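Quick question, first post here. What does this chain look like in 3D?
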Amino acid sequence: MLAPPRARVWHSPKVQLKDTDGKKVAMFQASNRPVSVLKWFRETQPQEEAISIIDPDMFFMRPVVLVADPQNGPHNLHSGQWQTEMATPGHGVGAMYGQGCVPRHWGNQTLLKVCDNEHRCLDAVHDDIACMKNYSSGPPWIFHRDDAEKLLETFAEKTIKVHQAWPDLLSEQVAYGVAQMQLGMEAHLDTFWFISGPDSMQPWDSLVEVGWDACQSHEPPPPEAGLPIFFHAASTYDIPHLTKGFRLHKDHVHKDLLDCDAPLIHHPPTDALERYKSEPKSKSFRDTWSVCAYTNMINFHVSTWKKQFCQTPNLETTAVYPPYGQQFLNKSSWVNHVFRSGGWTDVDYKPRFF
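> Answer (accepted):
Ran it through. Tokens below.
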């Protein structure tokens, strides 16, 4: 199943970014997300108490449930749904990322300017460790419906101000935490939400203990296996001993993958992980596992879509991706006329380099 039965799609119109003085602002990395989510909330008025923002390159590997008193086993390895704190008014939930307490390094004058002279921001960054535990966050973000209007409005405003003060790739992500600071909100952050790059901060040890070999299987991870919640496809992954043909990044996959005639991507050899199992903490093990797991999830979900919407779907796993970004295998594909291709080259604004 690609989505829950109650899933709905909402398309955001193109929005011109403006600062608090009404001046137009050029687009930058993820700058469209805060204003789009705010517009979605205002137009759809969701009734669920918990609202979550996740990245489009996140794949579910395991169900999650929000509870008042989470009871997970050692290393979060119990099978079934993973439990995390529920979002309550004034208290959010999210994934802990490694950027740390970024606003602490701006200086008081800049921070107060970003926070509209709200001294709560100064209080929030006073303790570096406490600041990191509450605000070094990223998707998935979960917040209570009662906080949504003010939080999302402030998030949209802070995204522009943070980028002006700190024009980094992660400025929009940091702006979410700054919005929470300014509103006096706190958050429960956890590193168990996802695996992405081979960073030791991520829950790779739990994955090793589960023992599921992504290369031996051509299926997605079994949801009962006790893995982290998401695979976050935010990195480039290599199988070291297979240097040709298995350097995988989301931008390397052909953009007409959903075309009925387009093939699926090729699988690595089923024994690809074997030579690295003696060093499960190595980058080689983690990268190889990621190539296999990512391939499995892409092919599974695309196959599910094609079986539902194509009369004669091409389910052959024969597409060999290049070690760099590519566009369409078939430039006349209907996908090219409906969707933007995405990727680093698909921009309609001039990138800013600092």
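The chain has two domains: 32-70+80-193, 196-338.
The chain has a mean pLDDT of 91.
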